[in-house]
Amino acid sequence: MANLEYLKKTGWQKFCYNFVNFFKNLPHALANFFKKIPLWFKMLGRRIASVFLEVYYAAARGDWKTRMSFVFMGFGQLFRGQVLRGIMYLLFEVVFILYMVFFGWKYLAQMGSLGEKAMEEVWNPDKGIYEYVYYDNSMLILLYSVLTIFFILAFVYVWYQNLRTNNILQEMKEVGKKVPGTKDDIQSLANDQYYKTLLSIPMLGLVVFTIIPIVFMIFIAFTNYDQAHMPPSQLFDWVGFDNFADILGGGVSANGARFAYTFRAVLLWTLIWAVFATFTNYILGMIVAMLINKKGIRFKKLWRTVLILTVAVPSFVSLLLMSQMLSVNGIINSTLMSWGWIKEPIPFLTNSTVAKVTVIVVNIWIGIPYTMLMITGILMNIPSDLYESARIDGAGPAKMYFKITLPYMWFVTTPYLISTFVGNINNFNVIFLLTGGAPLTQSFEEAGGTDLLITWLYKLTFNEQNYSMAAVIGILVFIVIAVISLIVYNKSNAVKNEEVFG
Amino acid sequence: MAEKIKKFRSKRKAEITTNVIVYIILICISVVWLIPYLYLVAQSFRGESTGVVGYMFPKEWTFNNYIQLITDTDTLNFPMWYLNTLIVSLVTCIIQTFIVLATSYCLSRMRFRGRKGLMNLMLILGMFPGFMTMTAIYFILKQIGLTGNLAGLVLVYVASSAMGYYISKGFFDTIPRSLDEAAKIDGASQHTIFLKVILPLAKPIVVYTILTSFLAPWGDYMFASLMMLGETDKFNVAVGLKEMLTRENLPKYFTRFCAGAVVVSIPIAALFIWLQRFYVEGVTGGAVKG
Amino acid sequence: MANLSLRHIYKVYPNGVKAVNDFNMDIEDKEFIVFVGPSGCGKSTTLRMIAGLEDISAGELRIGDVVVNDVEPKDRDIAMVFQNYALYPHMSVYENIAFGLRIRKMPNEEIHKRVTEAAEILGITEYLDRKPKEMSGGQRQRVSLGRAIVREPKVMLLDEPLSNLDAKLRTQMRAEISKLHKKLQTTFIYVTHDQVEAMTMGTRIVVMKNGFVQQIDTPQNLYRYPGNKFVAGFIGTPQMNFFEGTLTKNGNKVDIKFEYSDAMITVPYEKLLKARPHYLDGNHPVYIGLRAEDASLDPEVVANSKYKVKVVISHIEELGNESLVYADINMHGDGYTESSTRIIIKSQTANQYTPGEVYDCALDVDHLHLFDKETEESIIPRIPEVNEIECKVKDGKLAFLNSLLQLPSAITCPEGKGTMLLPTNAIVFGGRATANAVECEEIGGKYLVSLDVAGRRLFAVSEKPVKLGECNISIDMKRISLHIEDTVVEAMNEKVAFNGTFDKQKVVEDVAIFKKPKKDKKQAEEVVAEQATDEQPVAEQVEQPLEESEQPEVVKYKKRKVIHFYLNIAGTRFDAPDDIAQKIFATLPPRTVFSTPFRYEFTPYDFTLADSGIPAKVERVLDYGNEKFAVVRIDENTVINVFVKDNVWGDVYLQPDISKVGVVETVRDIRLA
Prior knowledge:
The structure holds 3 protein chains of 3 kinds. By secondary structure, chain A is mainly alpha-helical. Chain A has helices spanning 4-8, 11-61, 64-71, 75-79, 83-109, 138-175, 182-188, 194-220, 242-248, 256-293, 300-312, 315-325, 331-338, 352-379, 384-393, 397-425, 428-435, 453-462, 467-501; strands at 119-124, 129-134. Chain A has 3 domains: 9-53; 62-240, no CATH class; 256-501, MetI-like (MetI-like fold, Orthogonal Bundle). In chain C, strand 16 and strand 17 form a beta hairpin.
């Protein structure tokens, strides 16, 4: 049944209703979300159970070939016709064992302590000087431990796959099905298993250069790796959640309070910046696109090309240029002063508040052409009969914009907006190249008035080598982005449901 | 009848007035947009001094800045930087295009266990700030000895490029499946389908991927600065040009900076404008719903 | 050029949804088969299974006598035309057509010859260098056809190829495809949702609904003899009129009363002779179907007709040469919306009818269709199931028509008057009674014989044609059922079904090890290579070289552990035949196959009594005179009838003929054999 009560309300009433409803439904939505968690666990549990089931099958129902594969990976495959796979499994096992014995074990054992002694001054009788001899390097210990952990996880997974495949092969042989031999396997790599061919290199890159570094950095967040604890001359240790406590206001260490204060301020500015940067570009870009697209405006290509110039020129050039033009003795100040509009140079980049505004404005300059380009493409795709029927209904240009253009645009570009918003949270270039994150403030810990979380991260790493804090901030940025993404995705579903059921 | 003509006339007048206003706005916008570049180009020809000045047009016009840019390579070696960036972006472009296209084709066309999980994983990994991995990669590369080395930089750019599959995958998704099926019945393997059927149809997205992966290294400051810590010879143009603007270097190198910026911008702008059609198609096709 | 055979084809999705249910069909070479039905009925899925684009969940697909369930599409020697043409946009028409040939590494000369020939046939030679987007829909469709025929496939598959074309083009292309079929003399399988296309193009049509086959028949037969209400309503424009009603037999007349109205007509019983008797008792609601052209408002026809109803005119649709008159048999009816009382009547435009007026409408009762209201099956099948005859039982003898038969001891029946239901397959030719065969009609491979017995028309079914005139018949007593006074004696239950499972066991047995003949190895390889092109599964390839070359020497016997498979029928194990085992493994994953319940089906004739087998206890023996059946009890729920030669008592062991078993997987209800 259509909700006639809701339909009767005017626009403003509807808005109030939706607004109130959103908050009324919030606990409900949250409850739903949390209800999903046990389901998720149930699925996870089922997956884990199936893993154990496979192992059980291999042990209980496996024939001697399968059982041998518990110890010698690939054994079953070798004897059942999949020679290549069998060899690969076996090779992997050998490599793994060698790696663990000669390399991995050492480091893994030290993971808990992160090293006993870093270095020592030793008297070298031959040369007659004191020399440094290096023993344990905490960073390397952690790094290689992470590597080893991954290797172990990979090994467990491969071992499990080995058993599972053996089970399947055994069953196939029993029922008389043909087992794909090595030649078939290789042929199918170009066909059914093509995804393995295509994805092998990208996935390797992904694991080694993205997943392992991220895990490594997550671990670092729980240590005290900074300037005072710099391998190879010093060790660093586990500090648990201390860093997080510091930055979130626990105030454990001396610098803790400052970090927390800085963090709050920087986080706030990052969010404000992201909102302004995204939406000013979006709305203004749309307006410019519509102006250019308007009927009766000629030289459309000319206007577009002019604006595209800002896209075509590398943004870092534009930004560095702007940083000079807006400097205290830059051309803009000089010109304004020579015109008599101002008496003193405006501290575009040096005053905290003004700098914030400057940054947003410059970003508009750089960003509008991007949005304009994209929106122009979409504008041309709006079915014109929407406008025609609105005109017949008597709508003026403003009404058409708000009731047709804007909603359509909004619907179509929502993913783009989300990704731009997230991208702006991490927009290093604009802030750093323009202001350098300045002005530095005493009250901030190595951060400036226009610093985003990401530039602060950079500074902590680059200037202060405070890797642990940098890692903590990285994790917090991730959490912020994850939370925002979750809210947006859920809201876009929730809103749809809301409007249906009132 | 006269009424109608009057109404028509006033409507026309209103229309013309709006158009004039719009033209004025557009002209203002264009001027504002273009002035900084005008300034840049003008300053690059300035002969009277090399620092920042308060006026736009030079009193002395000269090519000196450009010449010095190329010849004076003692401290700030611009040609070297240019070459570095060119090499890095070419190599990155080739490798990254392959990786992105392979990944997005797989995820779009083939169904296999763990496909959804893989996409979710990459989504989550993408939420970590890219710079966070930088430190770890730096350490890893240091162990291998690839820091301060162009190869290392290429590795950094290329390594996580699989995560940029989203737009390309969206594009591949729009190619109808029946094409795959017809080819399958004709006897083609997945490999043949990818190379001979799908890829030729994906020209816009291939060009888009090549373009974006070529242009990216030119504008990267974050990673390049960290990788090439202290080795000015190995800088890329972004880091190098910023170096010219430090407090010590600024008075001497400002005009040269402008010259360098112009030298960098012109080819890239030309390339972009030449291929802009593909860029727009890629962004509207893959990034936008519908 | 090939024939196809689909046996028990199912498509079951992981979530349990059955897209195609028990599809059985044999397609001859050069036929033009059309799968037709509403959206989602499974026709495209079946076509795609034939093509190899979808996996076959259960059943066997043969192309030219070769089982191709697991064969890749490209090796099945088929070609497909898609609904949206699926042309490669970046290639020219020539390249599009040549694509498949190039992949098969055909020599260039050959490719050129074939492509130009195909283009010639389809009239697209001048477009060979164009790209698809420069061509119209019809031209693209022709290119798509060209791509298919250039491969000279065994079977041509077409998936709604004309749906994207406008009406005029569609009619044109329809004719062209038919022409193509005649020219190529290849088997065509065509999928469409448009019944007009199906009727005009097909040699045989398969009507499907919700994954089930409704009817497979020629267009004329589908039109004249639809098997159920769905087929009747689906085929033919305008749609058949359906009314609800009841039938009541009064002596030798039957009253057909139309529900929701006052209309009623009375027809002689002879016209409904083939109807199942219990529908004529007035208590079984039916659907009455009548096509628009079988009703008439023409005053001349009405005057000469004995079967009329009154209708009130609602509105008229003019078609030019004729018009469709919408009317209602209910005087207060609407006539616009489809209902149980609306009637559409074809009329010549010359006659004018005034909306709102009441007219007489003549109904052609020879073309009346009747369907059961619940099952929607036709109650007057072409081959009727039973004859209903009045009879009398006295002194152990059954008297009916001109015969007096001794009731066998198996049938115990009180004395009295009643009716006998004599199934048409219970009349056997050859015997002592005489009858006059007046008509023999071939219907779907069987022969319907109309017999005149003492003035009464009886129907019988025969596998072979029967010469008209005097013939001998006898009655299979086990199949008749009697309703005497208040007692009902049913026919003997001929269904035998057991529950069981599928087992395996490791058995140690002697396996012969053959010495590999060395010099014959090359020959064996060649033989294998030859057979590879025939696409036989590898298992068979391995066996045959051994059979064809000389019997190799047996070196020794080794004790090996071998796994045997058994059908566990009602607790007793029987060796599973290879083909049944393979079918079971093809459908079920190895892990669950041994715990899945099955139902094994036989006929009473498939058993012998032996020393081993299924233990059973004989309860009694039914003696039908010429045949004896033992009623045996297997367990507390299962009692079956088994054919025996002599009387038996006590405990017996039943040895079934495994080659005749029917296997049904009961969980998903899939018939495997």
